Amino acid sequence: MKYRILLLLVLVGLTTNAQVKKWTLEECVIYAVENNLTIEQFALDLETAKIDKSDAVGNLLPNLNGSASVSSNTGFSINPTNNLPTNQTAFNVNGGFSSNVTLFDGLRNVKQLQRAEMNAIASQYRLDDLKDDIRLNVANAYLQVVSNIEQVKVFKAQFAVTEQDLERTKELVESGVVPRGDLLEIEATAATQEQQIVNGESLVTIAKVNLAQLLQITDYENFDIADEDFDVPPSDILSNSAKSIFAKAMEFRNDIKLSEANVALAEKDLEISKGAYLPTIGAFFNYGTRYSDVTQLPDPVTGVPFTPSFTDQLWIFDGISYGAQLSVPIFNGWSTRNNVKRSKISLERTKLQFEQDKLALEATVQQAYVDVTTFRKAYEAAQKTQEARRLAYEYAKERYDVGLMNAFDFQQAQARVDNAEADVIRTKYDYIFRLKILEFYFGIPISLD
Fold first, then answer.
1. Which positions make up the signal peptide (predicted)?
2. pTM to 2 decimals?
3. Domains of the chain (ranges, CATH numbers)
4. Cβ-contact 208, 220 below 8 angstroms
């Protein structure tokens, strides 16, 4: 029975391991955009901007307020019917409605609505810009994982070759063909390669954790990426000049749109602050009625005073008032003038920031363009170096096999091949990522297909 339970647990563990999700680059990018906490915070900012727009619409509409009060007076009071002093206990009810609307306030209410609409658009640009940054960061982290995995594969393949050389050298030492020092040299190389494998696997784990953290996934043990071996994708992005790529980026980059929107917002703020120089015109409408149990009215037929009913008093004593009011700013301690000055300074600041953002984008595109060219050449040079090191290694191996080269020189040749292969992998993924960055600035979505 115990063995059956143990077997069941093993099978469950194997099934669980088999179901570990393997994440592709596209899945990582989509998941990061949909689940990033900072994006969720920016999305809430966008919702707040939409509420601000609703507030601005409400400011254009008349308000409506109702009021009601119930009171009882004992002792000295004023009779609400004749406004004469009385010592009667009185029960009073008052109620009414009031409405106010701003007809003109220097068009500030209209411009506040326009500003709220513009701010909602700017918030959307801010959110989209953050998503762009996250896509780039996830792609870079993903490629780093793949690069580290490939390097570990190379280390293991090199170690397998060294193990074969180690077994062969042992036989030659035992037969007295080569000195024991050659065996010790190869054993040292094997130990070094084992250490490379351990360090490489550690770097793979760290890279996966970094990627998982970008995705805000905490189950690091079960996080893994799909088994993908990316080749350098075909691209004609370098057929475009850096200047044309920059011009294209200016058309769609969300950070530039956000910076431009901030200038428009500052211009609108200046218009709003200037509106305080102008008069404000408003209109009002009030309706009110009341009831009091001490009310005395003469009977229209007999002339005898009587107290009308609650309903009758509400109709008898109701009334309305309406009108308009004008407020002209004459002097307010220079607050309006100073607010206008502050708005002008803010506008100049946003204009300068816009120009700075354009310069930064141009510098980034130029750097990305140079990086693609540089890393492509580095990758091509690494490939040539790898081929040359491989030929040199094969030649060294032939000499070593016939005893014309000692083990130390032979292992040096192999080490140079190992380094060349590692450089190929590193420069390959550096080139791929820089290529994708430049394409991204040209409006091409991130994809390694």
1. none
2. 0.77
3. 25-61+105-278+329-441 (1.20.1600.10)
4. yes
